[in-house]
Amino acid sequence: MDQPVFASLLPVVFLIGAGVLARRRGWISGQGVKELSNLAFLLLAPALLFRTMATVRLEQMELRPIATYFIGAGVIFLATLLVRGLTRRAVVLALAGTYSNAVMIGIPLVGLAYGDAGLVPLFTLISMHAVVMLTLATVLLELSVAREERAAGLHAQRSMAHTVALAVRNAIIHPVPLPILAGLLFGQTGWAIPPLIDKPMQLLGSSFSPLALVLVGATLASSRIGVLWRGALGLALAKNLGHPLLVVAAAWMLGTGGLPVAVMALTAALPIGANVFMFSQRYAVDEELITAAVAVSTVLAMGTVSLVLWVTNSAGVLPPT
Questions:
Q1: What is the domain-level CATH number for residue 162?
Q2: Which of 117, 256, 262, 270 is the most exposed place for a label (fewest CB within 10 A)?
Q3: From the CB of residue 148, how many other CB atoms can be counted at a distance below 10 Å?
Q4: Number of compact structural domains in the chain
Q5: Quick one: 244 exposed, middle or buried, by C-beta within 10 A (0-12, 13-18, 19+)?
Q6: pLDDT of 302 over the 60 cut
Q7: Average pLDDT over residues 64-78
Q8: Contact 201, 50 (CB under 8 A)
Q9: Which of 263, 261, 250, 244 is nearest to 301 (CA)?
């Protein structure tokens, strides 16, 4: 197994394992998991998202390699919705098949595999990753919730246009898209976040991924993995293998290649991000299945990421050295 892969994934496995231990030892209850999930979703994630987006400069982005990543993600996302329909469950499953753990695993792994040159396209992708994937998921989830409420007769007096407008408003005034948009707008001013504000935001944001992974483990400890393993494995294979294969296919169709595309393919092969678990908790959809899928995807990545690294180098996605 490639040393960079092992070195990057092992801390994630340890954090999930720590969550399993904490739950089984009674250090955290089921209610405690939900309360900490709210804390991560409502406080820690917004700090991370705003601070990340505040550094983005739109004019500096190299978008063609990034397009290959989102074409691959878009194919899986759209296919999931076509098969399952526009429901909360379908949106969360679509997100699970497309959203990578690009920060906690991606940054150290790409740095070890490709050095600083590989981090440049990765940081460009990270700056757009949440904007595109999480904002899209939020809008579709809010539309699904509004449609379900309307079908149940909870808001029968509203017109469809009013229902859609309310769903879009709820999707914008939301702990995920709002800090993304606010950070992006702030970034275009060229200003820097004052140190007295930036430091606590950095501390809050850096706490998100570790806490989310510990919560994945805590939920995993009480999940019926034996019943869910087939569905979890299917999601993990779509994420870890299907996504990077589609990225390489998109790169071939667009006639692009080189190091940036290799980084996109590697990032697509990363395990399911902890943000998906937060969404499943937030919208009360398939929490146990998503928890199992994150765990299976992380373990599976030790083999699949190594395979993608070998394929991208052997197939000439990288330029000859």
A1: 1.20.1530.20
A2: 117
A3: 12
A4: 1
A5: buried
A6: yes
A7: 95
A8: yes
A9: 244
Domain hosting 210: range is: 3-314
Q: Would 321 be classed as within a structural domain?
A: no
CA distances from 260 to 117, 241, 270, 275 (A): 9, 18, 16, 24
Which residues, 6 or more positions from 22, have their beta carbon under 8 angstroms from its beta carbon? 28, 214, 217, 218
DSSP 272: B
Among candidates 144, 125, 116, 88, which has minimal Cα distance to 273? 125
Could you tell me the pLDDT band of residue 316, with boundaries at 50, 70 and 90? low
Give the C-alpha separation, 63 to 251, whole Å: 12
Going 284 to 285 to 288 to 291, the CA torsion angle's sign is: negative
CB 125 within 8 A of CB 267: yes
**154 or 77, which is more confident?**
77
Q: Residue 208: what residue type?
A: F
Average pLDDT of the segment spanning 121-125: 82
Query: Cβ distance 293 to 274 under 8 Å?
Result: no
Least confident of 151-155, 156-160, 178-182, 259-263: 156-160
Helices 135-151 and 160-172 meet at what angle, rounded to 10?
Answer: 140
319 located within any domain = no
The pTM assigned to this predicted structure is 0.79
CA–CA gap between residue 79 and residue 94 (Å, rounded): 8
Q: Is residue 320 part of a domain?
A: no
The pLDDT confidence band at residue 111, using thresholds 50, 70 and 90, is: confident
Q: Provide the pLDDT for residue 77.
A: 97
Residue 166's pLDDT band (cuts 50, 70, 90): low
Two tokens at 263?
A: 């980084």
